[in-house]
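User: Here's a structure from my thesis project, written as structure tokens. My advisor, Dr. K., wants to see whether a designed sequence matches the one we expressed. Can you design one independently, without my sequence as a hint?
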């Protein structure tokens, strides 16, 4: 009888330990993946915004159609990245940026628009960066 109790205790310990280990590893892996994808989103956002700003600052030199195509493509990508749910705190910047991007015309050098784009980008990216840092520390 004592052997059976010891055997059941060992089996229960292994099963419970396995479940706890699996749950911890799953949560850790999930947090790593979310952080990685969030960083990819941030980096892509920055890259697309830099293409747009370059198109504004550079104007339309030498009828460079590939630069303009890239700018229009970057604008479309950025607009689809923005969360339009303004009921969530911080998303009001997304809506403002989306409207600005929608109405943006390239080939017209405009430093004020560039500064506004940079300002809005920072307001959108900062909370995302804070989430990445929290997730890296294992917090939700």
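Assistant: Designed independently from the structure alone:
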């Amino acid at each position: 009888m004592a052997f059976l109790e010891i055997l059941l205790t060992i089996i229960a310990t292994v099963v419970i330990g396995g479940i706890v280990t699996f749950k911890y590893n799953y949560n850790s892996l999930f947090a790593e993946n979310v952080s990685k994808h969030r960083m990819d989103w941030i980096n892509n956002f920055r890259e697309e915004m830099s293409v747009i700003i370059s198109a504004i600052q550079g104007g339309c030199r030498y009828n460079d159609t590939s630069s303009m195509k890239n700018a229009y493509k970057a604008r479309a990508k950025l607009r689809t990245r923005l969360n339009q749910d303004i009921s969530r705190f911080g998303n009001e910047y997304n809506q403002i940026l989306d409207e600005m991007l929608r109405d943006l015309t390239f080939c017209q050098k405009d430093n004020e628009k560039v500064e506004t784009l940079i300002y809005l980008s920072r307001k959108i990216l900062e909370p995302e960066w804070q989430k990445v840092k929290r997730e890296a520390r294992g917090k939700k």
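When you compare it with your expressed construct, this may help: The longest helix spans residues 2-58.
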